[in-house]
Design a protein that fits this description.
Layout (H helix, E strand, L loop, with lengths): L2 E5 L4 H12 L3 E6 L12 E4 L5 H7 L6 E4 L7 H4 L5 H21 L4 E7 L29 H20 L2 E7 L2 E2 L12 H11 L5 E5 L5 E2 L2 E2 H12 L7 E3 L5 E2 H12 L4 E5 L13 H7 L7 H16 L1
Parallel strand pairs: 1-2, 1-4, 2-3, 4-5, 5-6, 6-11, 7-10, 8-13
Antiparallel strand pairs: 9-12
Helix pairs in contact: 4-5, 6-8, 6-10, 8-10
Protein name: NAD-dependent epimerase/dehydratase family protein
Keywords: NAD
Organism: Desulfoglaeba alkanexedens ALDC
Amino acid sequence: MKTALVCGAGGFIGSHMVRRLKDEGYWVRGVDLKFPEFWETVADDFVIGDLREQDLCRRIVDRRFDEVYQFAADMGGAGYVFTGVHDADIMHNSAQINLNMLDVCHKRNVKRIFYSSSACIYPEYNQLDPDNPNCAEDSAYPAQPDSEYGWEKLFSERIYLAYQRNKGMEVRIARFHNMFGPYGSWKDGKEKAPAAMWRKVAMAPDGGEIEIWGDGKQTRSFLYIDECLDGVLRLTRSDWSGPVNIGSDEMVTIDQLADMAMEIAGKKLAKKHIDGPLGVRGRNSDNRLIQEKLGWRPSRPLREGLEKTYRWIAAQVG
């Protein structure tokens, strides 16, 4: 039986990955500061612990796992990442986790490790035009991420690639573009834009009003969780390291996202644009490289995933 370790298994993507791996017949160990909040873990073994502590990392990497998935990070949505209040914690905590995991995996002779980077590594100067952002993988340098979160992700990419060059490890790196779906944060201040939008729409009475940060013309793309896992597994089990984008290239404005939410909910709501943390003006996944190297691209329209996610969040709101 193949074995896998999922770091960050109490979080949104990590908890979904545990289930996917179990469905494939893997023995799975999960580790996180907490259990998944919205459903039970199906991991064979789940360790509650802090990956910033090297002793904990040594205990959980007690064998040569076939695959290690490193999703653990100090992160959240725009309200957490772009205010500047959490910069020191974000950079210190996430970098410490990655340094620890690489060290113990190397010492245990674990070869294949996946690292979840982020589209936030891309230069701000290439994302000023909301209609024409440049997020091709080779555009990352000269580097100028728009947040310390992005700088840490870029730094950690380089650590992983250095371990591959110097230590013989087989790293796989993906730059995620806004994953969403059921069983994720939707009201704790760390939720991403789709979950926050769905919550606002679900809680607003028909004919009411929702608040939107900025002018609503900023653009993004969003990828449903099942599609994300498909891309991650294909990359991890390939002979290619990346870094590569994993995301949707179906770009929408935030106002369009709100309109889709209202249409799915069957509500007519006014949009009130207010000041708030925004990030870059435009961002969209450029999928040319992953399609060329791995033959992968998202197979389903954005709306399909949004409908599933709205039903789940509406049920949580009650």
